[in-house]
Design goal:
Farnesyl Diphosphate Synthase, Amorph_synthase
Length: 338
């Protein structure tokens, strides 16, 4: 886990150009280290149409709030930014999965706020589908089963197994988050970031990044300690960046599992200062990712390099998506004042 200074009084909110940021979005733009340039997949519009068609076929667009939520989150746009070089078949699965996870996550949050135990049927169905190929009993379960089918048809058996394993980890994380939210005392920083790692839902996409390569990675590459560390760093950075932009939304909703809000609780500081502390942690994480990637690159095959570049794509994509997605519009409306 990257370290960060705990002395929030040392944080400066003025960019190097001397012009103070007027809102949180400008503050993030001015200080976040983003070495990866903006890219967008040429199949983005096709993937967006594919998401709409898939959600209709699964019967999910008829459920309350889903259509509006998809319009606010733009899953195909996020997929396009995260996976700018993949072909349409992989991009469509990524976009479908992002849409599914947004629906699943929002529903889990709604149920979990009332009672963590109320999540058990929903989560148990998902685990049974992913682990045992059990038949679904709900529309959301049917969507997951179909997504699982798409992955197995496009990926190798080993890649599909890794996808299912990482997806089960994400499902379990939502229960941990609900328990933490229901506890009378907010979780400490370490516990909050551990739960956030589970609920990020980023690592299930890495087997799809591998599937986009011309060949399957060797076990030596896939399980190399540095590649494993790169996976962890990229997933953390990718999910922490949206936390910066969503902090206002989460604070208003009473959310706790958010990196910026965890810093605010730990240091009892203003939200802009907490965002700056979170940016320091993210910048440290991204720089470690850059350094390790450069060190390991000579040892990797072209497929291995492409696989790690897929991880970097999530860091890039989550940033450029978070800046403009309507879901996080409050960040541009919140003053960057201590």
């Amino acid at each position: 886990m990257a370290t960060v200074s705990t002395t929030h009084e040392e944080v400066t909110l003025t960019p190097q150009n001397g012009i103070p940021a007027s809102n949180l979005t400008q503050l993030i733009d001015a200080h976040l280290h983003m070495p990866f340039p903006f890219l967008s997949n040429r199949h983005a519009s096709e993937a967006a149409a594919g998401v709409d068609a898939w959600l209709r076929a699964c019967g999910l667009t008829g459920e309350l709030g889903v259509t509006a939520m998809i319009a606010f989150t733009r899953p195909a746009e996020l997929a396009s930014y995260n996976s700018p070089t993949v072909e349409l078949d992989i991009l469509q699965i990524v976009a479908n999965q992002i849409a599914y996870q947004f629906i699943f996550d929002d529903r889990a949050e709604e149920i979990g706020r009332r009672s963590p135990g109320g999540l058990l049927p929903m989560l148990s169905e998902s685990i049974a589908i992913l682990r045992d190929d059990a038949p679904p009993s709900t529309r959301l379960g049917a969507a997951l089963a179909d997504l699982h089918r798409q992955v197995r048809e496009r990926c190798t058996p080993a890649q599909a197994a890794r996808w299912a394993w990482k997806s089960r980890e994400y499902v379990h994380g939502l229960l941990y988050e609900a328990v933490a939210q229901a506890h009378p005392r907010p979780p400490r920083m370490g516990l909050s970031t551990s739960i956030r790692s589970l609920t990020a839902g980023v690592e299930p996409f890495y087997p799809l990044a591998e599937a986009a390569q011309p060949c399957e990675l060797s076990a030596e590459e896939l399980h190399h300690p540095v590649v494993q560390r790169l996976s962890r760093l990229s997933a953390d950075a990718a999910v922490w960046i949206p936390d910066l932009f969503s902090a206002v939304k989460e604070q208003r909703a009473g959310g706790m599992i958010n990196l910026a809000l965890a810093h605010q609780r730990a240091h009892r500081c203003s939200l802009p200062t907490a965002v700056m502390l979170a940016i320091r942690q993210i910048n440290s994480t991204i720089r470690e990712f850059e350094r390790l990637f450069e060190e390991i690159k000579p040892e990797l095959s072209p497929a291995g390099i492409g696989y790690v570049e897929g991880m970097a794509g999530w860091i890039r994509g989550c940033y450029y998506w978070s800046r403009t997605v309507p879901r996080y519009a409050d960040a541009a409306l919140t003053p960057a004042l201590v």
